[in-house]
Amino acid sequence: MSADDQRFGLQRHVTLPGPLPLDGGGRLAPVEIAYETYGTLAPDRGNAVLICHALTMDQHVAGANPRTGKPGWWTQMVGPGRPVDTDHFFVVCANVIGSCMGSSGPATMDPATGKPFGMIFPVITIRDMVRAQALLLDHLGVDRLKAVIGGSMGGMQALSWPATFPDRVEAVVVIASAARHSAQNIAFHEVGRQAVMADPHWRGGDYYGHEVPAAGLAVARMAAHITYLSEAGLTQKFGRKLQARDAKTFGFDADFQVESYLRYQGIAFVDRFDANSYLYITRAMDYFDLAEEHGGLLASAFRQTRARFALISFDTDWLYPTRESRSIVQALNAAGAPVSFVELSSPYGHDAFLLDSPEMNRVVAGFLGTAS
Amino acid sequence: MTLRADLAIIANHVAAGSRVLDVGCGDGALMAALRDAKQADARGLEIDPRNVAAAVGRGLSVIQGDADIDLAGYPDASFDYAILSQTLQTCRAPDAVLGQLLRIGRRAFVSFPNFAHWRVRLSLLWGGRMPVTRLLPERWYDTPNIHHLTVDDFRAHLRSRGIAVEGAWFLSGDQQTRSAAANFLAEHAIFLLRGTDAASSVLHRD
């Protein structure tokens, strides 16, 4: 791989001709993908690792986000000397299709009309995201992945990889994730979608060039954000403490710190995320049921692959609780796949996978063979 | 690295290239030895997350779980050997765990400290206190060993369940000792078991 090869590096964008056949029946063409690569692809192309991001994340896993200037969202896991060691691995992270960070999604231009897709954009699935990633890897000249790694929705993609491309992946790391969305998961997402669609500025998704449905998306984010934290974590951080005041106001201002915090989270989210993308990606997660794609038996999803697996859950994660990981482990055992699993202890709920966790780092480094 | 004496005996008697499930695998010392010396395909189950992390760090496939609960998720006859070393006496339902071992593995290695060893007997007889020995270092209230057993207890149990014994080894200190009078002289016993059809039908009723 030559140093001036424009396919590699930070802040890359490619328009692939496709077409990408979609689970919902349609086709996507062309397929735009925004991505970053770190490290150097080995001459035998055998050191590639794909990182899959969560619902509202992006391709800037280890590089600074050019828009916000903030460091990558998983720098404690990915980088030089980190568990996913970029001195050793060639790391790829791509924005999922349906998102709004440069890959094809409802906010990108529909070549047929010259206007943003909006709700004309096809409904996509987790497997469609994975197939788009495979197109990108074809473009990069990567046939086989040394590992695919993801947390939360990224874990769903990581699980989908060996099920969809059994010969293209050697190792799979799934963190704080599940093989299907539960009724409760779907329920929370539906609250978020209804909040967006109830905002008069949503206009059936045709709001580009107008005011965005900020209030709806902010409420969606507030509801979702609660599911990323644990009750103990919220209590520890906020309790019933009041926000910059000595007494309750007997009104509906943000009296409590937790209210003020959630409002801030909601407003900050609107600045970086497209409301329609939020609808499409939450839908893709709700449709995810890996067993259903394989005749109703999860073990069948893993019978073709020779990949090894590592799963990690967190004890206070009630969004994707440990029992979801355990049912994946059982299916992998039934399929005879080599699998490791550990439940780690953390007070931070689902968000724990994004925070610095020496135990998580140790397990991932050990599994990838990069432990010192 | 030297293996604990009971693990060394097990490692020596596992056939090369076998599929092995080590239940209560700790930090994976036996699994690593079986992988490196016997080219075994070794998998582990371990309750302590720190041990799981250490074992995964050695490149081993280990699942965090509880033998009393999580063995039920393994398919029938999916391993050549299921190994339970120094864990039987910590199980809430050792009889059921033994049944699971022989369901999952074609053969099972089981090792346990012998509560009828003469030093344990003396301690109880003369001291009148629950014995605290090298192999049983915890006191009555903090010991994980909740189902103490003796070599003769185990043999009687195997007979009643119709489980065949294919091998038995006994340790005093780190030295092997004779099978005769093992119930008195052995600190530690290792059995190689094979479930019979009769045993399986009994065990499956559990």
Automatic annotation (TrEMBL), chain A:
Top EC class for this record: transferase
Family statement drawn from the similarity comment of this UniProt entry: Belongs to the AB hydrolase superfamily. MetX family.
Name of the featured protein: Homoserine O-acetyltransferase
Reaction catalyzed: L-homoserine + acetyl-CoA = O-acetyl-L-homoserine + CoA
InterPro entries in the cross-refs: AB_hydrolase_1, AB_hydrolase_fold, HAT_MetX-like
Main location: cytoplasm
Subcellular location: Cytoplasm
Entry function: Transfers an acetyl group from acetyl-CoA to L-homoserine, forming acetyl-L-homoserine.
Enzyme Commission (EC) number: 2.3.1.31
Taxonomic lineage from the root: Bacteria, Pseudomonadati, Pseudomonadota, Alphaproteobacteria, Sphingomonadales
Family matches, as Gene3D superfamilies: 1.10.1740.110, alpha/beta hydrolase (3.40.50.1820)
Organism: Sphingomonas dokdonensis
From TrEMBL, chain B:
Domain of life where this protein originates: Bacteria
CDD domains: AdoMet_MTases
NCBIfam families in the record: metW (TIGR02081)
Name of the molecule in the record: Methionine biosynthesis protein MetW
